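Minutes, project check-in
Item: structure for the 229-residue chain
Input as provided by the requester:
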Amino acid sequence: MSSNQSTPEVTWAQRSSATDAEKNFIYLTIAAPDVAKIDLDLKPTSLTFSGTSETKKTTYHVELEFFAEIDVENSKTHHTSRDVMLILRKKELKEEYWPRLLKDTKKMHFLKTDFDKWVDEDEQDGAPVDDMMGGMGGGMPGMDMAGMGGMGGMGADGGFGGLDFSKLGGAGGDMPDLGDMGGDDDEGDDDMPALEGDDEADTTEGAKGKGPEEGEGASAASSKIEEVS
């Protein structure tokens, strides 16, 4: 066991509902990388977490006393190599948000808002609800890993927050066909002005084409001169 103890970063967000218990919960993420075994004590009014990282030689420990009670039996926990993610079901069905996560009004330096999941109270009806074992899987909190096929230890989403690169044009896997780019140049050639050399060539060819006619005119003039003489 390591003697170096640290308070992990904790991020949170929430949803609320006065009628649907499944939409009345707290998102909670405890950042504790490389912790193989965790000790998590979840109670209706509090949470205590401990875990040791052998690679970082650090023991993470944090205790939280909630603003209000949670439903322990209907809460979920998902442990990955990067963090511990929880969905804590609020016990009281209520339309209003909790004013804060903790009972204590004092600001905690380790506690931050999870802006990846947070939505305003009046906009939550249109916000998607992540599934703990699906959309929150892969070790990156709050990201849908099904969108991209594998990026090593980064999870399927690679840490890009569910971006669909196919919609970004050349930014993702759908690069434009460079061969097609030449077609625009060919079309543009139709509107190119004629080169000076081409004008001269056209003039010369025109002159050559008029040669026989001019020759006939010269012969006629010569005949008239003979007749007069």
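Outcome recorded: The first helix runs from residue 178 to 189.
No further action items on this chain.
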